[in-house]
Fold this sequence. Notes:
This protein has helices at 21-98, 103-115, 129-137, 178-190; strands at residues 122-127, 151-156, 165-168, 173-175. The protein is an alpha+beta fold and 191 residues long. The protein has a four-stranded mixed β-sheet. Helix 1 (21-98) packs antiparallel against helix 4. The mean pLDDT is 84.
Amino acid sequence: xxxxxxxxxxxxxxxxxxxxxxxxxxxxxxxxxxxxxxxxxxxxxxxxxxxxxxxxxxxxxxxxxxxxxxxxxxxxxxxxxxxxxxxxxxxxxxxxxxxxxxxxxxxxxxxxxxxxxxxxxxxxxxxxxxxxxxxxxxxxxxxxxxxxxxxxxxxxxxxxxxxxxxxxxxxxxxxxxxxxxxxxxxxxxxx
Length: 191
């Protein structure tokens, strides 16, 4: 065998070191530490990128939740206002419905309705037949002729509910029925 054998490499070999048995383990350990450190650095970079992405996703979610809450609060307020209006109207209806119809109540309704009329020579006041009978029974001053004032006639009508009235003039009708007043109250509260 020849001691001078030539070995051919496909490419130029650089940084070749002579390895002795004791230093081979040390070089191997050094290479392992370098590889471990490189892997750790790449892992930290990857984890950092993932954390940045997750943080962005959480921020986007947080923004969406806050936006939804910001939009929901006015909606809840509107719904509560609507519910309060309905509650107030229903309470008013029950209070009014529970009141007994009296002479004073009928007279007040007629006076309020007639006060809305301007310059009308003839007024035709329609009352519920039972309300008209009550006013006649107690000889209400409303039924007496108004000396020199506008001509007012009273008639019973089944279209008018108890406690209310309708005043017909040549210009139109004033609806002073209880249910109409409740609807006007409801519309005013809803506005």
